[in-house]
């Protein structure tokens, strides 16, 4: 129903879509967790908590413009340390899921009280969700592949 609480999660363009859906105000969004999305310029309604995880060496994030005020915790780190060799086998290495997966593992081990509070709240939302009457979980995964012309 329109009253059902929803937490949106997304990576890259999926995070951008999650930001836009939450900003629409058409959902009872109670949380938003994004990784590497260029949605910083989208104003998210006050009271929507969660985390926005970004690599400072990921130019895709910068495409979204300056970060709008937000109640979310913004987590930033470099995907590749100064002086560390940057992989050249994939485009935009700091934007790759592999790099954000490493950052997510670091978040899981973080001891910051502010970050822990946000992550624990997101975990609590889903912990017993499937045991609630009428619950449903829908997951979408997309893959796009560019084919040569002709």
Explained architecture:
With 150 residues, this protein is of the alpha/beta class. Helices cover 29% and strands 18% of the residues. It has four helices and four strands, in the order βαββαβαα. A four-stranded parallel β-sheet has the order 1-2-3-4, with helices on both faces. β1, α1 (13-24) and β2 (28-35) form a beta-alpha-beta unit. It is globular.
Task: Give a topology summary.
Blueprint: E1 5-11, H1 13-24, E2 28-35, E3 49-55, H2 59-62, E4 73-77, H3 97-108, H4 113-127
**Element order, helices and strands?**
EHEEHEHH
Tell me the structural class. alpha/beta
- Total of helices: 4
The span between the termini is: 46 Å
Q: How is the quaternary structure best described?
A: single chain
Widest sheet, order of strands: 1-2-3-4
| Tertiary shape | globular
Number of strands: 4
The largest β sheet comes out as:
4 strands, parallel
Question: Low-confidence stretches at least 5 residues in length (pLDDT < 50)?
Answer: none
Which bin fits the share of residues in helices? 25-40%
Strand content: 15-25%
Query: What is the radius of gyration?
Result: 17 Å
What does the average pLDDT come to?
90
């Amino acid at each position: 129903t329109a009253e059902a609480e929803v937490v949106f999660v997304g990576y890259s363009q999926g995070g951008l879509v999650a930001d836009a859906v939450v900003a629409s105000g058409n959902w009872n969004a109670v949380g938003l967790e994004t990784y590497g999305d260029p949605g910083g310029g989208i104003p998210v309604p006050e009271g929507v908590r969660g985390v926005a995880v970004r690599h400072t060496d990921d130019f895709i994030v910068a495409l979204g413009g300056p970060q709008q005020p937000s109640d979310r915790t913004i987590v930033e780190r470099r995907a590749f340390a100064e002086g560390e060799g940057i992989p050249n086998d994939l485009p935009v290495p700091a934007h790759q899921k592999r790099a954000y997966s490493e950052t997510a593992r670091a978040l899981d081990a973080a001891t910051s009280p502010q970050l822990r509070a946000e992550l624990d709240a997101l975990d609590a939302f889903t912990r017993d969700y499937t045991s609630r009457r009428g619950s449903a979980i829908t997951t979408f995964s997309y893959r796009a592949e560019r084919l040569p012309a002709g």
